[in-house]
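Q&A log
Question type: sequence-to-structure
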Amino acid sequence: MKLPQMLSRASRLPRLLQIRWLGQLTDGIFQSALASFVLFSPERQSNAVAAALAFAVVLLPYSLVGPYAGVFLDRFSRQRIVQIANLVRAFDLVVIAILVKSSSTGLLLTLFVLIAFGVNRLILAGLSAGLPLLVSRSELIVANALAVTGGTIGVVIGGGIGIGIKSLLDHSYKSDLSDSLLVGVAVIGYLISAALTARLGRKEIGPLDHEIASEGFKEMLAGFHLLRVHSDALRGIIATALQRGGLTSLTLMGLLLERNYFNASNNPDAGLRGFAFALAIAGVGIGIGSVISPYGVRRMGRHRWIKLMMVACTPFLILFALFPKENLLITTAFFVGLCGQAVKVTNDALVQSKIADEFRGRVFAFYDVAVNGAIVLGAVVAALILPKSGQSFFLPLLIAGTYLLALIALLPKTKFSADSIPTT
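Response status: OK
Response body:
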């Protein structure tokens, strides 16, 4: 089936995509409110440790909930789980809005933010698990690319919308109240997403009777042991994780540069706008990386394309280390985003082609945790290296060196090629 047919009214795929894309666009709005409140508030000075902690808080639920998501998703209606989870998330954000309005930055706010992102992981896992039931096997890679890339771009667009709304609200309200109202906008988005879920049938996205329930971290470890047989898929996962870790370090550096170096530290709104623009340009790169990857793979093959995209952005990282200018930050963000998405989309297809259906869930459980762990590690490394201003000669070179080392040590032709063990 061609793309127009996959997205036609006769197809059920658009209904799932609408739920996912709206949810992730709303995620962007919510995350922009959190970033404004925690990192770009006039009352709060941002530093690398605080920003790294924010990244860890966002990703901790993904790493802990991810392996266990299948326990629920393989036992109960995924449609109902996604719908109820969106309602729970909306209620959770009402509490967060109240806490933000009262300028609470303590443990209670952290707890409810953790709940919000943990529930989000359950929603995304449910939609991903159900997607193969709405398309044929030959359409799966295109459908995955649509879902993942559209969702990623949705987060970026949502962040831009959130910052725009925040700028308008700041003219009439104090900063914390503006942030709480922005969280309220996200509540509406999640409620609409819950309503859209009702358009899917109760069993339409599974689970099917033959699907095996997950066993949490045992499943994740089983996925790792299975990948040891398919070494190219395992190497691709580790390379993807390292790429994402480097991207996180660069994001943290960009945040601090925009907050405290490129703009006056007492003008956080200018820093927030600059950071949002850099993210938007990175989002454009992400979209282009997804679009060009099928053509690159056709010409070079999956393995060679991953290797090229792993290092194609390193010259820009080196230039940015030598000349830490705002325009070079934006250019580097574009190419690191483009190359990173190209690596991720291509490696997802590589893993899907190597691993049989009945083992794919446990492999992707390991994949998720590996990537999220690398992202947290990238944030921690950046926090240890970066000064409060965010200016660092060493960090961009470290990221570039990590990518080059991954090419040499992880992705040599003898170990990472189409001659590896075939699909079982």
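Response note: The mean pLDDT is 83.
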